[in-house]
Specification:
The chain has 274 residues and is α/β, with parallel strands linked by helices. The protein folds into two domains: 70 residues; 194 residues, Vaccinia Virus protein VP39 (Rossmann fold). The chain contains nine helices and 15 strands. Strands 6-5-4-10-11-15-14 form a seven-stranded mixed beta sheet, sandwiched between helices. α6 links the parallel β5 and β6. α1 runs antiparallel to α2.
Length: 274
């Protein structure tokens, strides 16, 4: 039995501890054994974790979920996420506006930083820990702790703190319910007097159809839409790709790329965008 294998089980057990100090210590021992430069810590005042990768620091709310994302480094996470949404097909410039719906911890900004103006990165994230991390990771962005919907109002939000698949549609598993404020994307765009949007990235754990419906009157202003229409909707875990694809094609968009293995992810371009 190797040295690494000998310590693997107890370290994995400690990483799941409710004691942040123990969990962080176990995580850093594992990074040390891997000869990784990564280092994780816990900020008790913010009640957030942060990972340091060279000169880069990134905040997140759940240790196990964060380590799943970042255990190979922040740039590796950045590249995987960027490529999973097929965004290498888009040529960005600094004046482009990007709307990140379901922004999570702001991981997309790891790839967009240096490509667009920071204030042009607009996010929607109703999860509290995710939002708190997001505003630290992209401090100059325009962030909204709101849900997107097909109507303005207040709704129940099903929170899954451990796995991060919180949703406005009741999922199989969730930890608790909170009431959140929602807006339509069209209402937001009109209120901010936005006329052109380079990209809408849409991932809402099965609630994507309602969000697009709420963007109907302004969808002509969007050049690209990247979707995740996987099997995530509700208790039955239905897919949303079919309805999203139909909506976008009828709205004048053309699918220009589809993920080779994750077929529910695709990128569309507005055929009449000017």
């Amino acid at each position: 039995m190797s040295f690494k294998s000998l310590f693997s089980w107890p370290l994995n057990k400690l990483q799941s501890s409710n004691n942040p100090k123990l969990a962080v210590t176990a995580s850093n021992i594992k990074f040390f054994l891997k000869r990784s430069q990564l280092n994780v810590s816990y900020d008790s005042k913010l009640d957030l974790y942060l990972i340091k990768d060279g000169n880069k620091i990134h905040y997140f709310g759940n240790l196990l979920r964060g380590l799943k994302f970042y255990n190979e480094g922040l740039m590796n996470r950045s590249k995987k996420l960027f490529n999973s949404y097929l965004l290498e097909n888009i040529k960005f410039n600094d004046k482009d506006i990007v709307i990140d719906c379901g922004a999570n911890y702001g991981d997309l900004w790891l790839s967009l930083e240096g490509k667009i103006n920071p204030s042009s990165y607009i996010t929607f994230e109703p999860g509290i820990k995710e939002y708190q991390s997001l505003i630290l990771n992209a401090p100059d962005g325009t962030h909204n702790c709101l849900g997107l919907d097909n109507k303005n109002g207040r709704v129940q939000f099903f929170v899954n703190e451990r796995y991060g698949d919180s949703s406005l549609v009741e999922p199989i598993n969730y930890s608790h319910l909170v009431e959140i404020e929602t807006t339509t994307l069209s209402s937001y765009i009109e209120s901010k007097e936005i006329t052109k949007i380079k990209l809408l990235k849409l991932e809402a754990e099965g609630y994507e159809p309602e969000i697009l419906e709420g963007a109907r009157s302004s969808i002509h202003m969007i050049e690209y839409i990247a979707i995740d229409g996987g099997y995530e909707r509700g208790i039955n875990e239905d897919e949303t790709f079919t309805s999203l694809n139909s909506f976008l094609l009828k709205s004048g968009f053309k699918m220009i790329a589809r993920h080779e293995t994750k077929h529910h992810k695709a990128l569309y371009r507005n055929e009449v965008y000017k």
